[in-house]
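Researcher: Go.
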Amino acid sequence: MINEQIIANAPDIRRSFESAVPFRHVQIDNFLKPEICEGLLSDFPSFDKEKAKNELGYVGGKAVTENVSSVSPFYAKFYEYINSKPFLQIMSDLTGVQDLFADETLFGGGTHENLDGQYLDAHIDFNIDERRMLHRRLNLLIYLNKEWDQAWGGSIELHSNPRIPETNEIKGFVPLFNRAVIFETNEYSWHGFPVIRLPQDKKHLSRKSFSIYLYTKDRPAEEVVAPHTTFYVARPFPDHVKSGQVLAESDYQYLRGLMANRDGLIQMYQDLLIQKEQRLRDFMQATQRKA
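Model: Structure:
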């Protein structure tokens, strides 16, 4: 299902991947055979609010379908392929990351649809699938947008360090049809996308993609840390907001939104910490009762 020319060019693509900054990545256009990418777009599931709840539990502008086999017979075949050994070997050939495992549940992956106004704060992904104790190593993002302008936002951006906006270096890729972006996942693979602002006559469009996450049993010793969830960094103030200026109403509302988003992230991490502490306490109590 992957374009044969891509497979033939695997050594060159791997060299590009391995030498890229701010961390290893590569953009590959015409990644899938044309009819395969057309099939993913034509059978793409409709936006479902039940699948659009964010980390804070609210319905947002991003819908994710993980159970892609239920979408259509074509999607079922594609799902079978991305879990196959030939596919995993091609991904190893393109990146140099060997002995990859697929995730049959597509946890967090599958189809992603983002509506006008949606954004994705810069973040690093959870590092370990604790169900199988596998290390998350690669993200493969395949874009399905035949009509997209960079000025509309939504370009996937790779960051050197979003926690220091003054020196943060950003590399962006417009989410064009049949464009794949592959990047490693580790403790500095920061990525996200800026807010989508569609023109009035393009509001019917959405940002569509298919996400695949791949794992290994081990990873380089210098990259190993304790299991953690996804870590987000809230967006910085926009460049045009400067000291001494009078804020327009739109600027004021935007800053209020930034603060609400930051507060929501803090609350989410507090809740996660409490839940983890409770699980640990329950485990210790159960162990003591057995003793």
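Model: The longest strand covers residues 134-143.
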